[in-house]
Amino acid sequence: RQMCIRDREVQNTDIIRSVFRKWEEGKGSPFDLLAEDALWTIEGRSLVAGTYERAGFVRQVIQPFNARMRTPLRPTVRSLYADGSTVVA
Q1: Is the pTM of this model over 0.85?
Q2: Which end of the chain has less Cβ packing within 10 Å, N or C?
Q3: CB-hemisphere CA count at 13 Å for 72?
Q4: What was the pLDDT predicted at 84?
Q5: How far, in Å, are 8, 50, 81, 84 from residue 65 at the CA level?
Q6: 71 vs 60: CA distance, rounded Å
Q7: Could you give the CA distance from residue 9 to residue 80 in angstroms, rounded to a whole number?
């Protein structure tokens, strides 16, 4: 059976809600939503400027950044909105 748009919106919203809940609990990150081969580019001339695959980006940019934080970043999701395959938190 082909999934209707509303069913897809509910499924995608559930995925986003789950990942953000894990992040809030300190057990995950929003980068868990990215494909393994997703590319992340930081433009400019900073020490971390360049293009990274997900694992390298997390290891070389996010983990060092988070290590300098007094307390970890944790989201508070107030609402989720879905429109087709797009979910906004």
Answers
A1: no
A2: N
A3: 12
A4: 86
A5: 35, 16, 29, 34
A6: 19
A7: 11
Range list of H helices, the chain: 5-24, 54-57, 63-67
Burial class from Cβ neighbours inside 10 Å (0-12, 13-18, 19+) for residue 20 reads buried
> Does pLDDT of 2 surpass 80?
no
Strand partners, 81: 88
| Predicted pLDDT of residue 82 | 95
CB atoms within 10 A of CB 23: 20
| Structure letter (DSSP) for residue 3 | P
* Mean pLDDT calculated for residue range 56-72: 95
Label residue 61 exposed, middle or buried (CB < 10 Å: 0-12, 13-18, 19+): middle
C-alpha–C-alpha distance, residues 51 and 40, integer Å: 6
